[in-house]
Amino acid sequence: MGIKGLTKLLHEHAPRCYKEQAIDSLFGRKIAIDASMAIYQFLIAVRQGADQLTDSSGHTTSHIAGMFYRTIKLMEAGVKPVYVFDGKPPEFKSGELLKRREKAAEAQAELKKATEAGDAELIEKMAKRTVRATKQDTEDVIKLLELMGVPVVRAESEAEATCAAMNKDGLVYGVGTEDMDALTFGSVRQIRHLHKSDSQKLPIVEITLSFALEEMGITMEQFIDICILCGCDYTDSIRGIGPKKAFEHIKKYKNIETMLKYLDKTKYPIPEGSFNYEMARKLFVEPEITPRADIEGKLKWKPPDEEALTKWMVEEKGFAPERVASGIARIKKSKSKGSQGRLDSFFKVTSSMPKRKPEMQKGKKGKKVKTGPYANR
Description:
48% of the residues lie in helices and 8% in strands. The chain has helices at 6-13, 35-47, 62-76, 94-117, 120-129, 135-148, 159-168, 181-184, 196-199, 209-216, 220-230, 243-253, 256-262, 277-285, 293-296, 306-316, 321-338; strands spanning 18-21, 30-34, 80-85, 152-154, 174-176, 189-192, 204-208.
Protein backbone atom coordinates (compact mmCIF):
# COMPACT_ATOMS: atom_id res chain seq x y z
CA MET A 1 0.00 0.00 0.00
CA GLY A 2 1.22 3.49 -0.74
CA ILE A 3 0.21 7.10 -1.28
CA LYS A 4 0.14 8.06 -4.95
CA GLY A 5 2.57 10.83 -5.86
CA LEU A 6 3.62 11.61 -2.29
CA THR A 7 7.33 11.09 -2.99
CA LYS A 8 7.33 13.74 -5.73
CA LEU A 9 5.21 16.09 -3.65
CA LEU A 10 7.68 15.98 -0.76
CA HIS A 11 10.62 16.49 -3.09
CA GLU A 12 8.97 19.63 -4.44
CA HIS A 13 7.67 21.17 -1.22
CA ALA A 14 9.81 19.69 1.56
CA PRO A 15 13.21 18.73 0.10
CA ARG A 16 15.00 19.06 3.44
CA CYS A 17 12.99 16.21 4.92
CA TYR A 18 15.11 13.88 2.75
CA LYS A 19 18.59 12.83 3.76
CA GLU A 20 20.75 10.44 1.74
CA GLN A 21 23.42 8.54 3.63
CA ALA A 22 25.38 5.30 3.76
CA ILE A 23 23.77 2.38 5.51
CA ASP A 24 26.57 2.48 8.08
CA SER A 25 24.90 5.61 9.48
CA LEU A 26 22.27 3.27 10.96
CA PHE A 27 24.88 1.48 13.07
CA GLY A 28 23.31 0.41 16.36
CA ARG A 29 19.83 1.57 15.27
CA LYS A 30 16.70 -0.52 15.76
CA ILE A 31 14.67 -0.49 12.54
CA ALA A 32 11.13 -1.89 12.21
CA ILE A 33 10.84 -3.46 8.76
CA ASP A 34 7.67 -4.31 6.85
CA ALA A 35 8.38 -8.01 6.27
CA SER A 36 5.62 -8.59 3.72
CA MET A 37 7.18 -6.18 1.24
CA ALA A 38 10.59 -7.84 1.62
CA ILE A 39 9.13 -11.30 0.93
CA TYR A 40 7.25 -9.96 -2.07
CA GLN A 41 10.44 -8.46 -3.50
CA PHE A 42 12.22 -11.82 -3.40
CA LEU A 43 9.28 -13.62 -4.99
CA ILE A 44 9.23 -10.96 -7.71
CA ALA A 45 12.94 -11.50 -8.33
CA VAL A 46 12.29 -15.20 -8.92
CA ARG A 47 9.62 -14.38 -11.51
CA GLN A 48 11.98 -11.92 -13.21
CA GLY A 49 14.55 -14.54 -14.04
CA ALA A 50 16.65 -14.91 -10.90
CA ASP A 51 17.74 -18.45 -10.02
CA GLN A 52 14.84 -20.22 -8.35
CA LEU A 53 15.74 -22.35 -5.35
CA THR A 54 13.46 -25.19 -4.25
CA ASP A 55 13.43 -27.85 -1.55
CA SER A 56 13.05 -31.59 -2.15
CA SER A 57 9.27 -31.19 -2.46
CA GLY A 58 9.60 -28.58 -5.19
CA HIS A 59 8.52 -25.66 -2.98
CA THR A 60 10.25 -22.36 -3.67
CA THR A 61 12.88 -21.36 -1.10
CA SER A 62 14.31 -18.31 -2.87
CA HIS A 63 12.52 -15.99 -0.44
CA ILE A 64 14.15 -17.83 2.47
CA ALA A 65 17.61 -17.41 0.92
CA GLY A 66 16.90 -13.75 0.17
CA MET A 67 15.77 -12.94 3.69
CA PHE A 68 18.67 -14.92 5.18
CA TYR A 69 21.39 -13.04 3.31
CA ARG A 70 19.72 -9.61 3.34
CA THR A 71 19.24 -9.78 7.10
CA ILE A 72 22.86 -10.83 7.57
CA LYS A 73 24.01 -7.83 5.50
CA LEU A 74 21.89 -5.48 7.61
CA MET A 75 23.35 -6.94 10.78
CA GLU A 76 26.87 -6.63 9.37
CA ALA A 77 26.20 -2.91 8.87
CA GLY A 78 25.30 -2.72 12.56
CA VAL A 79 21.53 -2.43 11.97
CA LYS A 80 19.20 -4.13 14.46
CA PRO A 81 16.24 -5.26 12.32
CA VAL A 82 12.79 -6.02 13.73
CA TYR A 83 10.53 -7.66 11.18
CA VAL A 84 6.81 -6.88 11.43
CA PHE A 85 4.30 -9.12 9.64
CA ASP A 86 0.80 -8.19 8.48
CA GLY A 87 -2.19 -9.41 10.43
CA LYS A 88 -5.82 -9.31 9.34
CA PRO A 89 -6.48 -6.40 6.95
CA PRO A 90 -9.10 -3.82 7.98
CA GLU A 91 -12.60 -4.76 6.80
CA PHE A 92 -12.82 -1.38 5.13
CA LYS A 93 -9.94 -2.44 2.85
CA SER A 94 -11.88 -5.41 1.43
CA GLY A 95 -12.87 -3.45 -1.68
CA GLU A 96 -9.24 -2.70 -2.52
CA LEU A 97 -8.24 -6.32 -1.90
CA LEU A 98 -11.01 -7.48 -4.25
CA LYS A 99 -9.70 -5.13 -6.95
CA ARG A 100 -6.22 -6.60 -6.50
CA ARG A 101 -7.52 -10.16 -6.85
CA GLU A 102 -9.40 -9.20 -10.01
CA LYS A 103 -6.26 -7.60 -11.45
CA ALA A 104 -4.25 -10.70 -10.55
CA ALA A 105 -6.78 -12.90 -12.35
CA GLU A 106 -6.60 -10.67 -15.42
CA ALA A 107 -2.80 -10.81 -15.30
CA GLN A 108 -2.90 -14.60 -15.06
CA ALA A 109 -5.04 -14.76 -18.21
CA GLU A 110 -2.67 -12.39 -20.01
CA LEU A 111 0.29 -14.46 -18.82
CA LYS A 112 -1.20 -17.56 -20.39
CA LYS A 113 -1.67 -15.78 -23.72
CA ALA A 114 1.85 -14.34 -23.61
CA THR A 115 3.30 -17.78 -22.86
CA GLU A 116 1.45 -19.33 -25.80
CA ALA A 117 2.67 -16.49 -28.04
CA GLY A 118 6.24 -16.69 -26.74
CA ASP A 119 6.29 -12.99 -25.85
CA ALA A 120 9.15 -12.89 -23.31
CA GLU A 121 8.73 -9.22 -22.40
CA LEU A 122 5.00 -9.57 -21.72
CA ILE A 123 5.57 -12.83 -19.85
CA GLU A 124 7.91 -11.08 -17.41
CA LYS A 125 5.52 -8.15 -16.98
CA MET A 126 2.45 -10.31 -16.33
CA ALA A 127 4.33 -12.81 -14.13
CA LYS A 128 5.25 -9.97 -11.81
CA ARG A 129 1.59 -9.01 -11.45
CA THR A 130 0.55 -12.53 -10.44
CA VAL A 131 2.98 -12.86 -7.52
CA ARG A 132 1.38 -13.42 -4.12
CA ALA A 133 3.04 -14.58 -0.92
CA THR A 134 1.34 -17.62 0.59
CA LYS A 135 0.76 -18.26 4.28
CA GLN A 136 3.49 -20.92 4.12
CA ASP A 137 5.93 -18.40 2.61
CA THR A 138 5.30 -16.12 5.57
CA GLU A 139 5.57 -18.85 8.19
CA ASP A 140 8.85 -20.08 6.67
CA VAL A 141 10.38 -16.62 6.93
CA ILE A 142 9.16 -16.18 10.50
CA LYS A 143 10.77 -19.47 11.49
CA LEU A 144 14.00 -18.50 9.73
CA LEU A 145 14.24 -15.16 11.54
CA GLU A 146 13.46 -16.66 14.94
CA LEU A 147 16.18 -19.28 14.48
CA MET A 148 18.56 -16.48 13.46
CA GLY A 149 17.79 -14.69 16.72
CA VAL A 150 16.07 -11.75 15.01
CA PRO A 151 12.93 -10.22 16.65
CA VAL A 152 9.60 -10.88 14.94
CA VAL A 153 6.34 -9.01 15.59
CA ARG A 154 2.96 -10.19 14.32
CA ALA A 155 0.82 -7.12 13.75
CA GLU A 156 -2.85 -7.10 14.67
CA SER A 157 -3.64 -5.60 11.27
CA GLU A 158 -1.49 -3.50 8.91
CA ALA A 159 2.24 -4.07 9.54
CA GLU A 160 3.10 -0.46 8.73
CA ALA A 161 0.63 0.86 11.30
CA THR A 162 2.32 -1.16 14.03
CA CYS A 163 5.76 -0.16 12.71
CA ALA A 164 4.74 3.49 12.93
CA ALA A 165 3.38 3.04 16.45
CA MET A 166 6.68 1.46 17.53
CA ASN A 167 8.54 4.40 16.01
CA LYS A 168 6.34 7.07 17.57
CA ASP A 169 6.75 5.46 20.97
CA GLY A 170 10.53 5.30 20.69
CA LEU A 171 10.83 1.52 20.52
CA VAL A 172 12.69 1.79 17.19
CA TYR A 173 14.65 4.52 15.42
CA GLY A 174 12.73 4.33 12.15
CA VAL A 175 10.52 2.30 9.81
CA GLY A 176 12.12 0.46 6.91
CA THR A 177 9.73 0.32 3.96
CA GLU A 178 9.29 1.67 0.44
CA ASP A 179 5.59 2.45 0.92
CA MET A 180 5.02 6.11 1.72
CA ASP A 181 1.94 5.47 3.84
CA ALA A 182 4.34 4.74 6.71
CA LEU A 183 4.47 8.53 7.07
CA THR A 184 0.68 8.81 6.92
CA PHE A 185 0.47 6.43 9.87
CA GLY A 186 2.81 8.81 11.68
CA SER A 187 6.27 7.25 11.45
CA VAL A 188 8.84 9.63 12.89
CA ARG A 189 11.39 8.48 10.31
CA GLN A 190 10.95 6.38 7.21
CA ILE A 191 14.01 4.55 5.91
CA ARG A 192 13.92 3.73 2.19
CA HIS A 193 16.26 1.71 -0.04
CA LEU A 194 17.50 -0.62 2.68
CA HIS A 195 17.41 -3.47 0.16
CA LYS A 196 19.02 -1.36 -2.57
CA SER A 197 21.95 -0.09 -0.52
CA ASP A 198 23.88 -3.27 -1.25
CA SER A 199 22.39 -4.76 -4.42
CA GLN A 200 22.28 -1.49 -6.38
CA LYS A 201 24.89 0.49 -4.44
CA LEU A 202 22.39 3.24 -3.66
CA PRO A 203 22.42 5.35 -0.51
CA ILE A 204 19.60 4.83 1.94
CA VAL A 205 17.07 7.66 2.19
CA GLU A 206 15.87 8.86 5.58
CA ILE A 207 12.65 10.91 5.55
CA THR A 208 11.83 12.86 8.71
CA LEU A 209 8.12 13.55 9.12
CA SER A 210 8.44 16.62 11.37
CA PHE A 211 10.72 18.30 8.82
CA ALA A 212 8.20 17.57 6.05
CA LEU A 213 5.31 19.10 8.02
CA GLU A 214 7.39 22.15 8.91
CA GLU A 215 8.53 22.86 5.37
CA MET A 216 5.06 22.33 3.93
CA GLY A 217 3.52 24.51 6.63
CA ILE A 218 0.82 22.00 7.56
CA THR A 219 -0.35 19.97 10.55
CA MET A 220 -0.34 16.19 10.78
CA GLU A 221 -4.11 16.20 10.36
CA GLN A 222 -3.77 18.17 7.12
CA PHE A 223 -1.00 15.87 5.94
CA ILE A 224 -3.32 12.88 6.35
CA ASP A 225 -6.07 14.66 4.38
CA ILE A 226 -3.58 15.38 1.58
CA CYS A 227 -2.59 11.71 1.49
CA ILE A 228 -6.23 10.62 1.30
CA LEU A 229 -6.83 12.97 -1.63
CA CYS A 230 -3.65 11.78 -3.37
CA GLY A 231 -5.01 8.23 -3.35
CA CYS A 232 -4.80 5.42 -0.79
CA ASP A 233 -6.20 1.90 -0.30
CA TYR A 234 -9.00 2.92 2.04
CA THR A 235 -11.17 4.96 -0.31
CA ASP A 236 -11.58 5.97 -3.93
CA SER A 237 -10.11 9.31 -4.94
CA ILE A 238 -11.68 12.30 -6.68
CA ARG A 239 -11.01 12.29 -10.40
CA GLY A 240 -8.94 15.31 -11.40
CA ILE A 241 -7.39 15.84 -7.97
CA GLY A 242 -3.83 14.53 -7.75
CA PRO A 243 -1.00 15.36 -5.35
CA LYS A 244 -0.58 18.95 -6.59
CA LYS A 245 -4.26 19.83 -6.30
CA ALA A 246 -4.56 17.96 -3.00
CA PHE A 247 -1.78 20.07 -1.49
CA GLU A 248 -3.19 23.32 -2.87
CA HIS A 249 -6.74 22.62 -1.67
CA ILE A 250 -5.79 21.56 1.86
CA LYS A 251 -3.43 24.53 2.21
CA LYS A 252 -6.32 26.79 1.22
CA TYR A 253 -9.28 25.10 2.93
CA LYS A 254 -7.43 23.36 5.82
CA ASN A 255 -9.42 20.10 5.61
CA ILE A 256 -11.44 17.90 3.26
CA GLU A 257 -14.83 18.93 4.73
CA THR A 258 -14.32 22.60 3.95
CA MET A 259 -12.78 21.80 0.58
CA LEU A 260 -15.87 19.82 -0.45
CA LYS A 261 -18.14 22.79 0.32
CA TYR A 262 -16.39 24.93 -2.29
CA LEU A 263 -15.27 22.27 -4.76
CA ASP A 264 -16.59 22.51 -8.32
CA LYS A 265 -18.44 19.17 -8.46
CA THR A 266 -18.86 19.33 -12.22
CA LYS A 267 -15.12 19.65 -12.74
CA TYR A 268 -14.20 17.30 -9.88
CA PRO A 269 -17.03 14.76 -9.51
CA ILE A 270 -17.19 13.01 -6.13
CA PRO A 271 -17.33 9.19 -6.43
CA GLU A 272 -20.84 8.30 -5.31
CA GLY A 273 -20.79 6.14 -2.20
CA SER A 274 -17.09 5.33 -2.46
CA PHE A 275 -15.35 8.45 -1.21
CA ASN A 276 -15.43 7.68 2.51
CA TYR A 277 -12.64 9.99 3.56
CA GLU A 278 -13.82 10.03 7.19
CA MET A 279 -13.29 6.30 7.61
CA ALA A 280 -9.97 6.48 5.77
CA ARG A 281 -8.88 9.26 8.10
CA LYS A 282 -9.87 7.21 11.15
CA LEU A 283 -7.90 4.19 9.92
CA PHE A 284 -4.78 6.35 9.63
CA VAL A 285 -5.28 8.17 12.94
CA GLU A 286 -6.52 5.23 15.03
CA PRO A 287 -5.31 2.05 13.32
CA GLU A 288 -5.48 -1.33 14.98
CA ILE A 289 -2.00 -1.94 16.34
CA THR A 290 -0.22 -4.62 18.34
CA PRO A 291 -0.20 -3.64 22.05
CA ARG A 292 3.08 -2.35 23.41
CA ALA A 293 3.11 -5.07 26.06
CA ASP A 294 3.19 -7.68 23.30
CA ILE A 295 6.16 -6.00 21.60
CA GLU A 296 8.64 -4.83 24.23
CA GLY A 297 9.55 -8.31 25.41
CA LYS A 298 10.27 -9.41 21.84
CA LEU A 299 12.82 -6.71 21.05
CA LYS A 300 15.78 -8.91 21.92
CA TRP A 301 18.50 -9.92 19.48
CA LYS A 302 19.64 -13.40 20.49
CA PRO A 303 22.50 -15.62 19.28
CA PRO A 304 21.41 -17.89 16.40
CA ASP A 305 20.25 -21.39 17.28
CA GLU A 306 23.02 -22.95 15.22
CA GLU A 307 21.91 -26.57 15.49
CA ALA A 308 18.21 -25.96 14.79
CA LEU A 309 18.91 -23.42 12.02
CA THR A 310 21.33 -25.78 10.27
CA LYS A 311 18.99 -28.74 10.56
CA TRP A 312 16.01 -26.80 9.21
CA MET A 313 17.82 -25.08 6.34
CA VAL A 314 19.91 -28.07 5.24
CA GLU A 315 17.68 -31.07 5.89
CA GLU A 316 14.25 -29.54 5.30
CA LYS A 317 14.92 -26.72 2.85
CA GLY A 318 17.83 -28.16 0.85
CA PHE A 319 20.47 -25.48 1.44
CA ALA A 320 24.17 -26.34 1.16
CA PRO A 321 25.68 -27.02 4.62
CA GLU A 322 28.78 -24.92 3.95
CA ARG A 323 26.71 -21.88 2.91
CA VAL A 324 24.55 -22.13 6.02
CA ALA A 325 27.63 -22.50 8.21
CA SER A 326 29.20 -19.45 6.55
CA GLY A 327 26.02 -17.44 7.14
CA ILE A 328 25.90 -18.40 10.81
CA ALA A 329 29.54 -17.39 11.23
CA ARG A 330 28.72 -13.98 9.73
CA ILE A 331 25.76 -13.57 12.11
CA LYS A 332 27.92 -14.31 15.13
CA LYS A 333 30.60 -11.91 13.97
CA SER A 334 28.07 -9.15 13.28
CA LYS A 335 26.54 -9.57 16.75
CA SER A 336 29.90 -8.94 18.39
CA LYS A 337 30.22 -5.80 16.28
CA GLY A 338 26.68 -4.72 17.08
CA SER A 339 27.31 -4.90 20.81
CA GLN A 340 29.28 -1.63 20.54
CA GLY A 341 27.35 1.51 21.38
CA ARG A 342 26.74 4.49 19.10
CA LEU A 343 28.93 7.51 19.80
CA ASP A 344 25.94 9.86 19.71
CA SER A 345 24.29 7.88 22.52
CA PHE A 346 26.67 9.71 24.89
CA PHE A 347 25.72 13.16 23.63
CA LYS A 348 22.55 15.15 23.14
CA VAL A 349 21.69 15.40 19.44
CA THR A 350 19.98 18.59 18.27
CA SER A 351 18.10 19.23 15.03
CA SER A 352 19.39 21.59 12.36
CA MET A 353 15.83 22.54 11.47
CA PRO A 354 14.33 25.68 13.04
CA LYS A 355 12.17 25.00 16.07
CA ARG A 356 8.41 25.28 15.92
CA LYS A 357 6.72 28.18 17.63
CA PRO A 358 6.19 27.49 21.36
CA GLU A 359 2.40 27.49 21.11
CA MET A 360 2.59 24.62 18.62
CA GLN A 361 4.51 22.53 21.13
CA LYS A 362 1.99 22.87 23.94
CA GLY A 363 -1.42 21.46 24.63
CA LYS A 364 -4.44 23.36 25.96
CA LYS A 365 -3.66 26.09 28.51
CA GLY A 366 0.05 25.69 27.82
CA LYS A 367 0.28 22.31 29.55
CA LYS A 368 2.53 19.61 28.16
CA VAL A 369 0.63 16.67 26.75
CA LYS A 370 1.60 13.09 26.10
CA THR A 371 1.67 11.99 22.49
CA GLY A 372 2.05 8.69 20.68
CA PRO A 373 -0.18 5.68 20.14
CA TYR A 374 0.66 4.17 23.53
CA ALA A 375 0.35 7.38 25.59
CA ASN A 376 -2.88 6.31 27.28
CA ARG A 377 -2.26 2.59 27.38
